[in-house]
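Hi everyone, sorry if this is the wrong subforum. Our group has a chain we'd like a structural model of before ordering constructs, and none of us has done structure prediction before. Sequence below.
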Amino acid sequence: EGPAEVHTVEHLLAAVTGVGVDNLRIEVSSAELAEPGDGSAALYVKLLRDAGLEVLDAKRSYFQIPHTVKFRHDDAELVGMPHDGLRVSFTIQYDSPVIGTQHATFDVVPEVFTREIAPARTFVLKRDVDRLREAGMIQGGSLNNAVVVEEKGVANPEGLRFPDEFVRHKILDLIGDLSLLGRPLRGHVMAFRSGHQSQIGFVKALADAEERATGFDLPPR
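Answer:
Right subforum, don't worry. Here is the predicted structure as tokens:
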């Protein structure tokens, strides 16, 4: 009863969006989703596909970006433009020489998401891991559920799954955040150095833009 919060939902929501599911009930019994698998969305995709997908006898309702929408927060910038389908472009810039600047663009359809985006893992800088553990946090984190970036490479013995795995995972996170619009998105979203906070602000800006353009009032966010 009353208000509730659930955290770390982006990988699951990205998987749901990526495989094309738009009608699903998810029940959780805690304030945070446990991270299954390896820090990517691959296991969620497998579980969804293994469970089986059902085509319903109902017309799919889309969220169509009505016009160019821009959002800025500190150094992050996001732009949404009308597009027939979901296209995501992302640019990251890190002072780590291992990550540096990376850019990728994908037209997000189930086959592309499953093959090119879902396997990309969460990553973290080794210096941040040390700082957080000294503060008593992320004690359960390991090389099994994240890519740990050191000064000259990654600590994970298997290395990277893609040369640009870092930006691919940021795209994965963004797809999960965009799912909070409540309907499959049609548009081209371009993100530059953004994270969850700026992406949630962008989602709200998109919802406000659609409401002004069409009078359609989204559910409370």
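For your construct planning: The longest helix spans residues 196-214. The beta strands are 63-64, 69-73, 76-81, 86-93, 101-107, 123-125, 147-149, 185-192.
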